[in-house]
Amino acid sequence: MSMSEPKIAVIGTGYVGAITSTCFAWLGGVEVWGLDTDPGRAGQLAMGQVPFYEPGLPEFLAETIATGRLTFTVSPHEALTDADVVFLCVGTPSGADGNPDLSQVESAARTLAPFLRDGTVVVNKSTVPVGSGNWVRTLLEDSLPRADRPAFQVVSNPEFLREGTAIDDFLFPDRVVLGGDESGLRRVAELYRPILEQAFEGGRPERLPELITTGLTSAEMTKYAANAFLAMKISFANEIAGLCELVGADAREVLPAIGADRRVGRPFLSPGLGWGGSCFGKDVSALVATGLEYGYTSGLLSATVEVNLAQRAAVIRRLQRELRVLKGRRIAVLGLAFKPGTDDLRDAPALDIIRRLLAAGAGVAAYDPVVKTLPPDLSAVRLAADVAEAADQADAVLLATEWPEFQDVDPSAVAAAMKGDLVLDGRNVLDPHAWASAGLRVVGVGW
Ligand code: UDX
Questions:
Q1: Which atom of ligand 1 is the closest one to the Cα of 273?
Q2: Would residue 89 show up in a list of annotated catalytic residues for this protein?
Q3: Does 100 sit in the ligand 1 pocket, CB within 6 Å?
Q4: In a domain, 150, yes or no
Q5: Ligand 1 center to residue 159 CA distance, Å?
Q6: Nearest Cα to 122, choosing from 69, 161, 178?
Q7: Exposed site from 9, 236, 239, 306, fewest CB < 10 Å?
Q8: For residue 347, is it left (φ>0), alpha (ψ between -120 and 50) or beta?
Q9: What is the CATH number of the domain that holds 369?
Q10: Is the domain of 182 the same as that of 321?
Q11: Average pLDDT for consecutive 10-residue bins of the chain (447 residues)?
Q12: 417 is in which domain, residue-wise?
């Protein structure tokens, strides 16, 4: 390896870290070291195994490791010595009080401090509360003797990766946001050059991503505000869908008609069971909490969360309206993951709804193409091997996650398996006519 290639270190090889290290190494021109405290995880990645479900990543990882530009290790010395740019990609789970738990960021910074040199750029990709860039800088400074403290830079580089499409999101982003001081920004922008110019095999030069440079705090705020906006857009769609049901309008007609206005845009206007996952709920709550620290009450953001939770309760009411009694009913739930293309169950609407169904005395069978285990408190759920098995003797079928394969299910096979005839399409993805032809009664969200 030539000595002139920049050395990148990525601290934390969870979801964001694994994608970041693999993509930068794949793009070439750099040497990338992924550092993790968990020897199992580092060892697995080093062998090209991905410890979570992300389509395409195993092949992409193996291909990149074979280039010799990507190494995973538990040794800070190996990963961090002479690193030019260090990405912090550690987790920031929600603490007991709802605020993000920053202990992993703190320990990553302490590990890193002794290896800093003049010109090292520390890039924060972990989602930290607004203002944390300064905190990381102070933490690093305080870990070093004042006398010969190196001149390092801190840059915030929020990630906008979606589970299931993370590699594409990394290589073909709409924008790259970098916050910090001029010289640090320039160094990081240089790393992103292949992406910004789409100068790689399979790049799409006809659609160049925008480079947006901001102050440190603005970049941190951008991450939260972006997720809050998307969450709000979904909650807006759900609120309008609820009103459509009341007045007899059809949200499937109304919402695309709103989205056709370029100022609005079509994506993220699908009503249903609401959002789940590790980001939206956590980030919107964190932004609300940040506001409160300044005595600011964010009505819009609080309502965004409330509407999302109300969708889950609304499904139960809908089932009660249709089935009258839930006690002793058999409900088949199709889809468990918070969205298709992932096995992630964090804040999954399906699980919340299943808990409510069990509490109401219903029996639940569930099928998900990828999720094959459930949390211990859901041991009463019968996990089926396919849709028909889940629907066996069911009074109602609830589609909770819009896995594409559910659209190909033969409605007559489901009808034959069921005892009742109610199908609640919680994501509006089934063809109501085809399902009605099989003798089933389909209801959805917003119509
Ligand atoms: C999200 C952001 O999109 C990403 O930019 C950020 O970095 C992390 O959070 P992710 O959590 O992977 O990514 O999920 P996303 O694909 O955005 O979907 C979020 C949820 O919203 C899913 O539960 C999905 O079912 C739901 N959703 C999405 C809707 O209910 N309606 C919609 O119209 C769109």
A1: 30
A2: no
A3: no
A4: yes
A5: 14
A6: 178
A7: 306
A8: left
A9: 3.40.50.720
A10: no
A11: 80 96 97 97 95 92 97 98 98 80 95 96 94 92 89 96 94 98 96 98 97 97 97 98 97 98 97 96 92 95 97 97 96 97 95 98 98 96 98 98 97 98 98 97 97
A12: 315-443
